[in-house]
Write a structure and sequence with these properties.
This protein is an alpha/beta fold and 278 residues long. A 6-stranded mixed β-sheet has the order 10-9-11-12-13-14. Strands 5-6-3-4-7 form a 5-stranded mixed β-sheet. A two-stranded antiparallel sheet has the order 1-2. It has 3 domains: 31 residues, no CATH class; 92 residues, Roll (Ubiquitin-like (UB roll)); 132 residues, Cytidine Deaminase, domain 2 (3-Layer(aba) Sandwich), CATH 3.40.140. It is built from 9 helices and 15 strands. Helix 2 crosses helix 7, helix 7 packs parallel to helix 8 and helix 8 runs parallel beside helix 9.
Length: 278
């Protein structure tokens, strides 16, 4: 059970709403995704407040710490404790003192909005960090990507209820979906997924990542920070995301829906079998 569930927080609530279909009116019960402020406190010092779905916050703490380069290895996350507060959630994180001291130049200490993966950065260097080169990774059949998209939809339990959250999912050959994490923020969902996989000692070059959002810069940056080599998004990438994926060696796929997709960088990792090019 997630620690926050034990504290009484839920990922959604029910509400009576007025529904109109043309000129027909009815009152129905709707499921509304929760969005709460979560403050990440490192070694007793608040670092950033993020608006997130209050689930899997231990995973979020680890994933955020890794992808923001606060720690270098999952073992450096010495403890995580989650506390319910009157206006949100406090996540207390303990890391080695040397890592904590290096945080002084990272320029956060402010609110991160739901749709923003760079909120809190105070310099251009912090906002757009050089991507970390990834390894060779796997070669994937296009049919495996199509199957992954179908499997992912079945695993999005919170979005099936609310229609308001993003998902990030990890797949491996012969095993299918390994883990899915959901959140109102696309970058939060990815941090949660990376945290869960890191705890399980996942080999990030042995699978591929699918996200239900656009492929923006921070999604590529977070993927490259742990060595993910193939990122597929159901929506479009941004120009900066394509540039960063090209630089670090990630295969970036956009508009991945059903059996359609567009490959923007490093296409060698996605194999296709066809009679002729169209």
């Amino acid at each position: 059970m997630d620690a926050l569930s034990e504290l009484g927080w839920a990922s959604y609530r029910q509400a009576t709403v007025d529904t109109w279909r043309g000129s027909t009116h009815s009152q129905t019960q709707d499921y509304i995704a929760e969005e709460v402020p979560v403050v990440l406190v490192y070694n007793t010092i608040p670092h950033v407040v993020m608006l997130t779905t209050p689930l899997n916050l231990e995973d979020f703490a680890l994933g955020f710490s890794l992808t923001e380069d606060i720690i270098k290895h999952p073992s450096e996350l010495q403890s995580v404790r989650v506390f319910q507060r009157s206006k949100g959630v406090e996540v207390r994180i303990t890391i080695p003192e040397a890592r904590f001291q290096s945080m002084s130049g990272k320029g956060r200490n402010m609110t991160g909005r739901t749709g923003c993966g760079l909120c809190g950065s105070t310099t251009l260097e912090q906002a757009v960090r050089p991507p970390r080169p990834v390894g060779q990774g796997l070669v994937l059949e296009a049919s495996q990507l199509t199957a992954a998209l179908s499997q992912m939809q079945q695993q999005q339990s919170l979005n099936q209820l609310t229609g308001a959250v993003h998902a990030a999912a990890w797949f491996e050959p012969e095993r299918g979906v390994i883990a899915v994490r959901e959140d109102v923020g696309r970058h939060n969902a990815l941090d949660k997924l990376i945290g869960a996989l890191a705890k399980a000692n996942c080999h990030f070059d042995g699978g591929w990542l699918v996200v239900t959002s656009r492929a923006s810069y921070e999604m590529v940056q977070k993927a490259s920070s742990v060595g993910i080599t193939l990122l597929a998004a159901v929506s479009a990438p941004t120009a900066l995301a394509i540039q960063l994926a090209e630089q670090c060696g990630i295969t970036l796929v956009g508009f991945a829906r059903n059996d359609n997709h567009v490959i923007y960088t490093h296409p060698h990792r996605l194999q296709h079998h066809q009679a002729a090019n169209v």
